[in-house]
């Protein structure tokens, strides 16, 4: 019987990895874990607590907000406010950053970018959804937080992670020293280490893309999709197509089984649909830390210099070999 290691114990054990952090990052990760448990409780009984359906409001993305989008956003922001380690929150659900200027947060060093509820279209049909978070350290030592401190490249993340509210609820995160997965044990209300040192399989045979957009894709992406469907035993094709519609769930499946997730530009989303700061950057850091790759077809996602909080980017993310094959097709048809 292996020893149960909770998220809290693990974070403290890994504390030694951060000479400069005197427990602040540990406490911040703990605060996120607490909010994840609260959101999980509502997700698990969404149909019983009147939290399904539309909230009747629209967010800066022009998306109709679901009640659970708003609920999750409130829970994570509340946990970050009361935890005292976070000075700014950038959320998918808010046009502008939220500056936390409380007594308890006056020396807070961390900036959190968050997608509180990823995969909103799946909430009402009981399909896995998630939360995605990205953590940066302030670049100035004091004074008001400047925009440049918030719009940092993905390479500057000090931590990144996601929660997947699925058949079980998992929290997966990295602080730049590997990826570890924790499964929520409802009987003790703790996230327990279940997937230590996660590595994406070197070979993948799953491609994940919304083929309903086929006609709107760039030619290189169309060619790649056709490539996936050709019979060729030597390269394990035809590949399997799997698309859940929650980025967290699609990327998590590929992290475990191998595969590539593609959300390219389309004629209706000319910059791509997925957001750099709180979807692509955190998941790119995780996948790179797990031995995979994440690009926009031409450059590393983590190297993109953000210009706007809600900017979008095309993304191809998964095991190196499959992502590089996509890049080949995309660059060939440029
Ligand atoms: P969110 O629910 O946070 O707005 O994100 C939804 C995203 C992502 O989770 C998913 O991969 C993608 O939207 C699905 O988009 P399509 O429905 O256009 O395929
Ligand atoms: Mn949304
Ligand atoms: Mn999302
Ligand atoms: Mn969302």
UniProtKB/TrEMBL annotation:
Catalytic reaction equation(s): beta-D-fructose 1,6-bisphosphate + H2O = beta-D-fructose 6-phosphate + phosphate
GO cellular component, one term: cytosol
Enzyme class: hydrolase
Domain of life: Bacteria
Cell compartment(s), UniProt: Cytoplasm
Residues given in the record as Mg(2+) 1 binding sites: 92, 115, 117
EC nos: 3.1.3.11
Pathway(s): Carbohydrate biosynthesis
Binding-site positions, Mg(2+) 2: 115, 118, 279
Protein family membership: Belongs to the FBPase class 1 family.
HAMAP family attached to this UniProt entry: FBPase_class1
NCBIfam families cross-referenced by the UniProt entry: PRK09293.1-1, PRK09293.1-3
The name this protein goes by in its record: Fructose-1,6-bisphosphatase class 1
Record lineage: Bacteria, Pseudomonadati, Bacteroidota, Sphingobacteriia, Sphingobacteriales
Name of the gene encoding the protein in the UniProt record: fbp
């Amino acid at each position: 019987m292996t020893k149960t290691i909770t998220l809290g114990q693990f974070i403290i054990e890994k504390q030694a990895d951060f000479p400069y952090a005197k427990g602040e990052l540990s406490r911040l990760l703990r605060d996120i874990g607490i909010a994840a448990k609260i959101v999980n409780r509502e997700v698990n009984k969404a149909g019983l607590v009147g939290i399904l359906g539309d909230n009747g409001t629209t967010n800066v993305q022009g998306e109709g907000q679901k009640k659970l989008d708003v609920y999750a956003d409130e829970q994570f922001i509340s946990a970050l406010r009361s935890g005292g380690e976070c000075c700014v929150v950038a959320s998918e659900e808010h046009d502008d950053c939220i500056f936390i200027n409380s007594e308890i947060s006056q020396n807070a060093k961390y900036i959190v970018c968050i997608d509180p509820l990823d995969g909103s279209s799946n909430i009402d049909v009981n399909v896995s959804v998630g939360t995605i978070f990205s953590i940066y350290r302030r670049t100035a030592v004091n004074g008001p937080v400047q925009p440049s401190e918030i719009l940092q490249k993905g390479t500057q993340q000090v931590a990144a992670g996601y929660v997947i509210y699925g058949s079980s609820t998992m929290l997966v995160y990295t602080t730049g020293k590997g990826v570890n997965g924790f499964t929520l044990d409802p009987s003790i209300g703790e996230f327990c280490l279940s997937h230590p040192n996660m590595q994406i399989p070197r070979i993948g045979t799953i491609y994940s893309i919304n083929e309903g957009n086929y006609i709107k894709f760039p030619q290189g992406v169309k060619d790649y999709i056709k490539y996936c469907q050709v019979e060729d035993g030597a390269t394990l094709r035809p590949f399997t197509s799997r698309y859940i519609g929650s980025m967290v769930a699609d990327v998590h499946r590929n992290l475990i089984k191998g595969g590539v997730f593609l959300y390219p530009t389309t004629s209706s989303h000319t910059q791509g649909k997925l957001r750099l700061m709180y979807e692509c950057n955190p998941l790119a850091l995780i996948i790179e830390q797990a031995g995979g790759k994440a690009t926009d077809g031409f450059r590393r996602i983590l190297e993109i210099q953000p210009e706007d909080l809600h900017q979008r980017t095309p993304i191809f993310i998964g095991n190196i070999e499959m992502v590089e094959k996509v890049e080949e097709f995309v660059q060939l048809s440029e």
